């Protein structure tokens, strides 16, 4: 099958095309919790880091709330605080409303992290687990968080770092010239942006988690089930053939240490900062 003409992608070829992010994650809502083990592991560690960090918030925001797993845990950790659960995927919030105990007491907001529909200095705590990597401009998202936080407010977030899915990226490069894996932020760029926005008491950590899969196809299916499909502007606009997938698997197997196993790396950046 011949590929369709490639779009005029400009300098953002490997960043997510935002108009499809909400659609993709909304479609993944029903099965998301069943495959989001890594996201839960990271989020639980992030939440543990803020439980005793400063006074309890009066108003908090779960930014990129998804199915509301951590919205519920935030309410349990800070029961006197008003909780807003915001996500760009309306389908995720519909799932949250109908499946998450306590959803009636939350404010559910469909919104964009890069243009938060909230007033200036209206929130004491922003919690965001594995959402910022889906922003077109991370600097805008961090700027918006700074805008809506009250003085002394805290931002706690996690996102993927540049080494994430490096093996899959290299395997695809051996097959074609399209972008199949998003570009992720570097630790240095995240720290620079936090400082540029005036955040203080910056704690920024990086660690790499590795997960094994029975096949490259199994890895790709899990990413799709999470809603984390390829949404870059330079993605192929045609269906992938069996032959292409076989070539990717062969290229993956030629990577160092992959001859007898399929391992994927996820670099996780976590930040705890204060305005």
Automatic annotation (TrEMBL):
The record places domain Methyltransferase type at: 61-157
InterPro entries in UniProt: BioC, Malonyl-ACP_OMT, Methyltransf_11, SAM-dependent_MTases_sf
Listed A to Z, the keywords are: Biotin biosynthesis, Methyltransferase, S-adenosyl-L-methionine, Transferase
Q: Which SUPFAM superfamilies would you find in this protein's record?
A: S-adenosyl-L-methionine-dependent methyltransferases
Q: Where are the transmembrane segments?
A: none
The keyword S-adenosyl-L-methionine belongs to this UniProt entry's keyword annotation: yes
**GO biological process terms held by the UniProt record:** biotin biosynthetic process; methylation
EC number(s) given by UniProt: 2.1.1.197
A Pfam family cross-referenced in the UniProt record is Methyltransf_11
Q: What does this protein do?
A: Converts the free carboxyl group of a malonyl-thioester to its methyl ester by transfer of a methyl group from S-adenosyl-L-methionine (SAM). It allows to synthesize pimeloyl-ACP via the fatty acid synthetic pathway.
Q: Which family does it belong to?
A: Belongs to the methyltransferase superfamily.
Protein name, please?
Malonyl-[acyl-carrier protein] O-methyltransferase
Query: Origin organism of this chain?
Result: Methylococcus capsulatus
């Amino acid at each position: 099958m011949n590929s369709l003409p490639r779009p005029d992608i400009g300098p953002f070829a490997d960043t997510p095309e935002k108009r499809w992010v909400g659609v993709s994650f909304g479609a993944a809502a029903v099965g998301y919790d069943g495959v989001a083990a890594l996201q839960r592991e990271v989020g639980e560690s992030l939440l543990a880091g803020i439980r005793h960090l400063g006074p309890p918030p009066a108003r908090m925001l779960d930014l990129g709330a998804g199915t509301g797993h951590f919205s519920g845990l935030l309410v349990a950790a800070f029961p006197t605080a008003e909780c807003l659960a915001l996500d760009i995927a309306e389908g995720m919030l519909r799932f949250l409303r109908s499946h998450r105990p306590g959803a009636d007491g939350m404010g559910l907001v469909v919104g964009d992290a890069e243009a938060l529909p909230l007033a200036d200095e209206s929130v004491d705590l922003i919690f965001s687990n594995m959402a910022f990597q889906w922003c077109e401009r991370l600097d805008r998202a961090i700027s918006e968080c700074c805008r809506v936080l009250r003085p002394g407010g805290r931002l706690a977030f996690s996102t993927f770092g540049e080494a994430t899915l490096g093996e899959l990226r290299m395997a695809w490069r051996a097959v074609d010239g399209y972008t199949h894996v998003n570009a992720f932020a570097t630790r240095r760029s995240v720290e620079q942006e936090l400082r540029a926005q005036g955040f203080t008491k910056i704690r920024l950590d990086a660690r790499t988690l590795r997960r094994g899969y029975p096949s490259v196809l199994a890895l790709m299916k899990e990413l799709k089930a999470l809603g984390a499909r390829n949404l870059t502007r330079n993605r192929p606009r045609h269906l992938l053939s069996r032959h292409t997938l076989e070539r990717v698997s062969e290229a993956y197997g030629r990577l160092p240490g992959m001859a007898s196993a399929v391992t994927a790396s996820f670099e996780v950046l976590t930040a705890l900062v204060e305005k």
